[in-house]
Amino acid sequence: MNKITRSWIVNGEPREAEFAPVRRLLDVLREDLGLKGTKEGCGEGECGACTVIVNGQPVLACLMAAGQVEDQAEIVTVEGLEKTETGRILQQAYIEKGAAQCGFCIPGMIVSSYALLEQHAHPDAGLIRESHAGNICRCTGYEKIVEAIQTAAERRAGNTGS
Amino acid sequence: MSPVSTLKTFEDIDCTFPKTLQEALELMADEKTRGVPLAGGTDLMVQWESGALPMPERVINVKSIPELREISEADNEVVIGGSVTHMELRQSSAVRRAVPSLAEAAATIGGFQIQIMGTLAGSVANASPAGDLAPSLLITDGTVTLAGVRGEREVKLTEFWKGYREIDRQPDELIVRFRLPRLPEGHYESWRKLGARKAQAISKVMGSSRGRMKDGVVSCFKVALGSIAPTAVRLYDVEQWIVGQPIHDETLKEAEQRVADAVKPIGDIRSTAEYRKWVSGRLVRLFLEELAARSG
Ligand SMILES: Cc1cc2nc3c(=O)[nH]c(=O)nc-3n(C[C@H](O)[C@H](O)[C@@H](O)COP(=O)(O)OP(=O)(O)OC[C@H]3O[C@@H](n4cnc5c(N)ncnc54)[C@H](O)[C@@H]3O)c2cc1C
Ligand code: FES
Ligand code: FES
Fold first, then answer.
1. A62 CA to chain B: closest CA distance, Å?
2. Which residues neighbour A70 within 8 Å (Cβ) at sequence distance 6 or greater?
3. What domains, with CATH codes, occur in chain B?
């Protein structure tokens, strides 16, 4: 297949990749760009483990043809979170609240949390649950995850004064 | 030739990235450049992966064609581009004003990620009997516009779904936009999806209605249900019967019975078919009750 080249900003850094146009974004990130933090759970859109952010929006990397992500697009994966204040606050809150058990869902879960807080500084519990409904966790029963996100939202708002 | 060479992967699929609708239609016109339209990929990628659909030679990326991304309002209708996403449908004030049940239905699809990726044309063309947007489109009596290089063609949505996973589209055509007559003054819409949890997917029934009450009786009522037949369906007989009736216990009971008699559910298991008939009746009863309550 004729390969195409795309230049993206991945976790704040310019990256270039060459791939067959319908290669899954998940495979380009993990294998071509070496970003193994993003996980494949189901590979069919049901679990959310592969969630990444493209231009501020959470998407499923297992269902996205990488060629559909245009040049200059900004991609954030779980590896990029600790470079951001929101990401660091979220990580700390997830740890403190015991929101991660086996951890398999967490890369996708916390990326969804990041996307939410970047768009809504003060989400209520309903919005937190709805925005994470596409992320399945078999371990925690979600309660601690919701608490972690609420805690992170409060700290973040405190820091920025918003 | 080794048999292995026929096993295709995503990497074997070619893809074109037209920048304009005209460019896309020219690619579609020629069999040598034509591709399967790829929008959000939330149906196609899954169907290819599972083997439900064979992987095609070529796809054409329609997701970012500018003409397919627009939402606009005219006097009596809202016009929605095919590549508008479910998230955009639920957030658009124009859509929420004109066809509130469509915005509500879009908000119940998958999780946020699926709503951000999936599109209106993708849902309509996928033509699953369980597609959540079909009932809300049907009750508007609106149209879908298809385009080829020869020109455009407008098809009534009530005639667009031909049968199980079958739509009125030629191989060289793209779905461009939907023209949906807006909710008239004094009318109300309802939307519900019942039994939608994954474990109960088998018994899912969903529907939408648009109606009005005047001088104590129903003066207009349109209702469509999904997941009960090979395509979503309007219940014309029930609609006609209820017009002119007041809404009280007796007419509600009769409406419920008429709906149960009118629908011919799919479902090989008899209990499932019986259950769907019953739920369909309850759903329409609920819509009529809501109409009466809102009309005060
Ligand atoms: C985890 C998960 C949960 C889901 N939950 C729901 C749900 O709750 N309710 C629901 O209704 N659906 C659901 N879906 C199904 C799916 O999201 C929808 O049917 C819809 O969003 C598909 O849109 P798409 O843009 O992704 O389509 P694609 O997969 O890109 O395409 C689907 C079909 O449409 C055709 N097509 C796309 N655009 C055009 C065009 N412009 N012209 C002609 N043909 C076109 C394609 O060729 C293909 O045949 C779910 C899917 C997943 C994976
Ligand atoms: S791996 Fe993508 S949703 Fe499960
Ligand atoms: S922590 Fe185990 S799946 Fe979520």
1. 8
2. A6, B64
3. 10-61 (3.30.43), 66-181 (3.30.465.10), 188-295 (3.30.390.50)
Number of domains forming the structure of chain A: 2
DSSP code, position B15: E
Per the DSSP assignment, residues forming a β-bridge with B208 are B191, B224
Question: Which residue in A33, A22, A11 sits closest to A111, CA to CA?
Answer: A11
Q: Look up residue B172 and give its two tokens.
A: 């060289």
Q: Where does the pLDDT of residue B203 fall: very low under 50, low under 70, confident under 90, or very high at 90 and above?
A: low
Question: Are residue A32 and residue A96 in the same domain, yes or no?
Answer: no
Kindly report the average pLDDT of chain B as a whole number.
93
- Tokens at residue B98, please? 């004109």
Q: What angle do CA B37, B41, B42 make, to 5 degrees?
A: 140
What is the pLDDT, as a whole number, of residue B1? Answer: 44
User: Using CA atoms, how far apart are residues A7 and A13, in angstroms rounded to an integer?
Assistant: 10
Strands B14-16 and B58-61: parallel
pLDDT above 90 as % of chain A: 94
CA distance B151 to B38: 21
Say if residue A96 is in the same domain as residue A154.
yes
In ligand 3, the atom with minimum distance to the C-alpha of A101 is 1
- List the single best residue of A68, A111, A112, A116 to mutate versus B (max B Cβ within 10 A): A68
How much is the pTM?
Answer: 0.96
* Cα–Cα distance, B62 to A30 (Å, whole number): 26
CB of B259 closer than 6 angstroms to any ligand 1 atom? no
| Residue A48 structural domain | 4-80
Backbone angles phi, psi at B2, to 5 degrees: -75, 140
Name the closest residue on chain B to residue A48, using Cα atoms.
B113
Q: Which residues does A24 contact at the CB level (< 8 Å), separation at least 6? A: A61, A62, A63, A64, A65, A66, B10, B45
